[in-house]
Amino acid sequence: MHFDALLIVAIGLGLLHFGFPLAYYCYLKKLWLNKPWDVRSDPEYKPRVSIIVPTYNEAKLVRQKLDDIASQDYPKNLVEIIVVDSASTDGTLEVVKEWIADHRDVKAKLIEENARRGKAHALNKTLKVAMGEVVIITDVDSAWPSRDTLASALSWFSDPLVGAVTCLKVPTRGGFIGVERGYRDLYNVVRLCESKRFSTPVFHGELAAFRRDLLVKLGGFPVDIGADDSHTATLIAISGFRAIAVDNALCTELVPREGYHMWRIRRAQHLIQHFAKALGLLSKAPRGFKPVLLAEAWLLLVATTILLYKALTGTATATILLAAGTALLLFKPYRTWIATQAYLVTATIRNLWTKEIAWEKQEKS
């Protein structure tokens, strides 16, 4: 019997690429999803909090976002809202100033940058004047649908071992062929289970909360990569504190009306930058966090390239495998996974010439 070594390698890589994430998901869901939390959450815990809202050309959305924050059921004397604007040109500054003037009962301020240098630069500038024990970063194009979202997120800081907290999130609509909603359904489970195990390496810009003293100790947010919130949370976890996504703080995110694929690619670029940098610190990670950082495998491009080559050169087995893979696109979870991997592959290549730290603004709805 003749064995085609190249084809066997391709099949092996493909099985590993698809089998490992599935096994990881099943492992997390079975062993950790229904386990009780081993950290304390005290609903009576009320720390002083600084809520930072970075903006760039957000005139259409910023008033709604500030109303959303102000409507939270949390003592107003313990909250400060800081809007940091990175040289908007669409009237965002005027809207923010008007909102602050109309809400004298809310402690709010505006910091203006004279140039756009990226989100992390703006956050680090604001961190110097933030007075809260906890600092929360929240994007304008997101919402906290419950009036208890803020209190619920902050309650986890009653445990001194918790250093950072983020939300679970859902998109406002499905995105391309339902991929965005399917992606979130899958990874909300993963992030929650990773958090119960120890910590998750992926945080969400809709609500990312950090102990201020830990941020100061780290020197602020990293300015050389895009996923500044996720990388900061990972550094906190590597230092021994918990960085968790919690199931009692749900947020919504707006999805671009146009340019959805570019939006996903840019987001994937930032995650790749984050993981590439974080893996260099793997030896310093706590025992419970190491497997989580190792749980990413990028084998699809190699496997697909070999299979395509073998199919074009007349190998029947490769042709059948590619045809079966194409047919499986009718299955939503598989379609979601393939789309996600396609974005990651494209993002990996694109990172070779641009990190997209400051990107072109996209309309969302």
From TrEMBL:
Keywords: Membrane, Transferase, Transmembrane, Transmembrane helix. Residues 50-217 form the Glycosyltransferase 2-like domain. Gene3D superfamilies: Spore Coat Polysaccharide Biosynthesis Protein SpsA, Chain A. It comes from Thermosphaera aggregans (strain DSM 11486 / M11TL). It holds the Pfam family Glycos_transf_2. PANTHER family: GLYCOSYLTRANSFERASE (PTHR43630:SF2), POLY-BETA-1,6-N-ACETYL-D-GLUCOSAMINE SYNTHASE (PTHR43630). InterPro entries: Glyco_trans_2-like, Nucleotide-diphossugar_trans. One of its GO terms (molecular function) is transferase activity. The keyword Membrane applies. The keyword Transmembrane applies. The chain crosses the membrane at residues 6-27, 292-309, 315-331. This is Glycosyl transferase family 2.
